[in-house]
Amino acid sequence: MLETSGTFQPGVIEEIQRKAATGLYAIRGYGTLRERRWATFDDLTFLPCSLTRIPLEGYREKCSTKTVLGTRHAKKPIELDIPIMITGMSWGALSLNAKTALAKGAALAGSSNTTGDGGMLRAERDASRCLIYEVLPSRYGINIHDMREADGIELTIGQGAKPGTGGLLLGSKVSDVIAHQRDLPIGVDQRSPARHPDFLGPDDMVIKVEELREATDGQVPIFVKMGASRVFDDVKLAAKAGADVIVVDGMEGGTAASPAILQEHTGLPTLAAVCEARRALEDIGVYGEVQLIIAGGIRDGVDAAKAIALGADAIYIGTAALIALNCNRAMYEIDYHAIGAAPYHCHHCHTGRCPVGITTQNPELMKRLDIDEGAERVLNLLRAMTLEIQMLARACGKSDIHHLEPEDMAALTAEASMICGIPLAGTRKVFGS
Amino acid sequence: MAEVTCEGRSIREINVAIKSHIRGGDNEITVRNPGGRHNLGVAILEPAHVTIEGSAGYYCGALADGSTVEVTGSAGWGLAESMLNGTAIVHGSAGNGAGAAIRGGAVIVYGDAAARAGVSMKGGLVLIGGDCGYMAGFMGQKGALIVCGDAGDAFADSMYATVCYVGGKIAGLGNDTVIEALSSADVEFLDATLERYLPFEIRKTKPSGKNFKKIVSGRRLWNFNQRDRKIWQEAL
Ligand SMILES: Cc1cc2nc3c(=O)[nH]c(=O)nc-3n(C[C@H](O)[C@H](O)[C@H](O)COP(=O)(O)O)c2cc1C
Ligand code: SF4
Predict the structure, then answer these.
(1) What is the Cα–Cα distance from A124 to A129, expressed in whole angstroms?
(2) Is residue A20 situated within a structural domain?
């Protein structure tokens, strides 16, 4: 029998040999590929009504999904029909067709979409009902007129897939159009700075938040987005800095291109992140006043409902929305093979040769994504996810999905019980307390 | 000519007052007693001339398009950051990140600038009459950065296509930089720019165009590439 080392497995051997050949670390897209051996939303189960609580009728009784963000300071808080929003993915990482389809789908669903690390695309604004404008360390494409058209401003400190580091866009995607938009030479492997160019820490971020508010006349909410790291402290600092809405992006979060090791070995999982974020807001007495958006590996209405029950006001999805646009679908298989991938196994967004036209700037590939069809699929996904959340909420007796609470769940593992502060199934105790 | 007094007013009230004067047709506005306040004159999108009589804090004249903001004292961090077009003039000195991420227009500092002047600039001009601190021009993408005095350490580090000129000494060049010979067009550009933006009394103490050094990107960090292993080791 041939034996394999448990330490030096085939993948490890290949990676060492790749490094030996190139002298460079690996870059890829998609987010962590690790088997999730940490506590996830799957480690929780809902406790629907029986005798102690009365459920709502599935198809008849109202269960509100309306979601309001930015009630703390903004003159015009954001009002969405549903709690699931499209996260910031840059025009550059994504094709024009993908950006537009996402915007259109989100608008049809009564939700929002977000710009990304490359400024605003006009077609995206025109297709959006509610557009969040990201202000990132790189400031690519920064434009005050676009900011003033936005419905919210998101000051991004970091992302879950790679907290503490800047963006990447490899040369194959820095086409003439993208280079022009970002003020870069065509074809460079663009590395974005990790730090903002004009503030360093929480003290001067207070001034930055004030500046963004001044620039938009105090009309729209200011979000602060961060990768999940020291969430308990970071969330408190962001709230103190004046954020109306805080976005915490967990370790399972997606990316178009990042060093692989950062995706695999940095940050906190999304389940842990939402729990820490809620405790942080409660700790300084602003839970409910500052809204919380959770992102990172959210796949369906179940994950979303659990995040909401744990304290999130809304959910960002990235990868799931791309999958709705046909990411990893079994079509154009030859083109998957040409980039060393296959349907269901593709994480090759960094190559710029996305077989289904999503993460590419190649006009021929981009054509494979029809904007209207894509928008319809995004709409359907958002609708179905919302129905799933409503189904769980009604079963738990809630006439508003935002009334879901930790008490509506039991933990299936000791770790999840400890992290979430929810009793372990079959006991009345929170593990470890 | 209108006046706005800062004393006893919130920054919101000050900026609203400035903008309502502009909307009312007053294109010359003097802001009195600024007291180093942050976010003075942010996002002015009309060709008005706002003079701040004294010193300003962070983000003075930031996110502008077409305005002129003139500070008679000194300015704090992020002077005119992310400006699309227009002019910011500081008679004194500027804090970190002067002209950060500007996409056009001109940021003029008669005195010194602290660290990272012109960081991530994407166009336009950053002109420092005096010396600048470390990492000026870091990741500069386009436009021109002119330092008439001495430049600090790690100057022009990891740039894309910003062109830098230094009149004095450079404490140390950043990663992937090249000193290039000045062309006659460079000398002409430098002389014309200094003449246009620096008052005679200041300009006469500065080197003339032909005495500047020109620094551009060596383009070795533009693409990941194993041939330049050493430079990547230092850069990342
Ligand atoms: C293709 C792609 C591009 C992204 N680009 C950006 C970006 O420009 N700015 C940003 O803040 N986050 C970016 N992200 C991260 C997302 O905003 C979000 O935090 C993450 O994708 C959420 O995790 P999920 O994909 O598992 O839903 C990107 C993610 C993907 C998948
Ligand atoms: S199919 Fe396209 S979007 Fe999906 S992982 Fe592959 S390259 Fe990325």
Answers:
(1) 10
(2) no
Task: Give the mutation candidate from A198, A203, A261 for the B interface (greatest B CB count, under 10 A).
Answer: A198
Whether pTM exceeds 0.90: yes
What residues are paired with A292 via a beta bridge?
A246
Whether residues B39 and A184 touch (CB distance < 8 A) is answered with no
Query: For each of chain A's 433 residues, which pLDDT tens digit applies?
Result: 899 999 999 999 999 999 999 888 899 999 999 999 999 999 999 999 999 888 898 777 999 999 999 999 999 999 999 999 999 999 999 999 999 999 999 999 999 999 999 999 999 999 999 999 999 999 999 999 999 999 999 999 999 999 989 888 999 999 999 999 999 999 999 988 999 999 999 999 999 999 999 999 999 999 999 999 999 999 999 999 999 999 999 999 999 999 999 999 999 999 999 999 999 999 999 999 999 999 999 999 999 999 999 999 999 999 999 999 999 999 999 999 999 999 999 999 999 999 999 999 999 999 999 999 999 999 999 999 999 999 999 999 999 999 999 999 999 999 999 999 999 999 999 999 8
**CA A354 – ligand 1 centroid, Å:** 16
The boundaries of the domain holding residue A93 are 55-325+369-409
Which residue, judged by its Cα, is nearest atom 4 of ligand 2? Answer: A327
Predicted ipTM > 0.90: yes
All residues at 6 or more sequence positions from A371 whose CB lies less than 8 Å from its CB, including other chains:
A97, A100, A101, A104
Sign of CA dihedral A183, A184, A186, A190: negative
Q: Which CATH superfamily is domain B30-235 in?
A: Glutamate synthase, alpha subunit, C-terminal domain (2.160.20.60)
